[in-house]
Description:
Blueprint: H1 15-20, E1 26-30, H2 37-52, E2 56-60, H3 66-70, E3 81-82, E4 93-97, H4 100-111, H5 114-122, H6 124-132, H7 136-151, E5 156-160, H8 173-181, H9 184-194, H10 200-208, H11 210-219, H12 221-253, E6 257-263, H13 267-282, E7 287-295, H14 305-318, H15 322-351, E8 357-361, H16 370-377
Parallel strand pairs: 1-5, 1-6, 2-4, 2-5, 6-7, 7-8
Antiparallel strand pairs: 3-4
Helix pairs in contact: 2-16, 4-7, 5-12, 7-12, 8-12, 9-12, 10-11, 13-15, 14-15
Amino acid sequence: xxxxxxxxxxxxxxxxxxxxxxxxxxxxxxxxxxxxxxxxxxxxxxxxxxxxxxxxxxxxxxxxxxxxxxxxxxxxxxxxxxxxxxxxxxxxxxxxxxxxxxxxxxxxxxxxxxxxxxxxxxxxxxxxxxxxxxxxxxxxxxxxxxxxxxxxxxxxxxxxxxxxxxxxxxxxxxxxxxxxxxxxxxxxxxxxxxxxxxxxxxxxxxxxxxxxxxxxxxxxxxxxxxxxxxxxxxxxxxxxxxxxxxxxxxxxxxxxxxxxxxxxxxxxxxxxxxxxxxxxxxxxxxxxxxxxxxxxxxxxxxxxxxxxxxxxxxxxxxxxxxxxxxxxxxxxxxxxxxxxxxxxxxxxxxxxxxxxxxxxxxxxxxxxxxxxxxxxxxxxx
Length: 381
């Protein structure tokens, strides 16, 4: 009998060893959407707390609510909430979801006086930027992770990142913030506040004439005034925010952090996983390995799909064994699916042959409670 298609060999990733390693303080799960990344983060956090006795907090940046449901919480917000029903009772696990506006507000309150904070909160440009502007979520994710690490209340922080390639945008946050802070436009907008409060319209008009009138016509004088006021009010705290973001970036590069790329054996997900692993390597981020979710298990790998179908056909010919023949056909279908998955995941293994891999079997039902998370965690050993 010919066994199913041989899979490319890769080092085995021992996630239990990662979770038990007291030198590792941060685990970051990244991957494309729909691959079970949020569930993986929750299962990792739960296992770290229950099996390894580590005080753990899991932070999700994904807006999906499944993490709260699986952990038995009615909702998640910007404050760590205790997860109940752990085994043993002494286990400590908290969960939270990033609220980017509230995090931005916390930064303002922590680094400005109350009067200045009130001025910032009332600024229309701040209200828009703190809630909807592209990139704010990534900046605030970096800030929140830095806050959690600085508090030093937990042995382990597990981070569930946004889906798709934006999962790695927070790695660019310090550099993008630096470019913004050092940009000519920002210095221009800061000039009115530093020039004694003259309006940005008057200042720019005096300097640039027709150009300024064109910009004002397009954007509006009030928007420019709001923007100038916003930037001027935040001027005193921008430097500290950049410094903290860069410090957090260095923490992510340190041995205390372990990145896990999460994927499913599907073409798009594996392609994204190849990109993630390459990007992490280029940025000198410590990649612990690949978590390959929803792998179809084969109970008898030595029995190929073709041989199983042939045996089922022979049983049909002699009659009297319909149940056995059906089992053989089911095995053949599973073996075919397993082989297709192996061929797809082989793309990652060829691109990154030295990266350890753990294969998590497909679950019979959606995970929606602690027992389901424990079942997944049991495959990490």
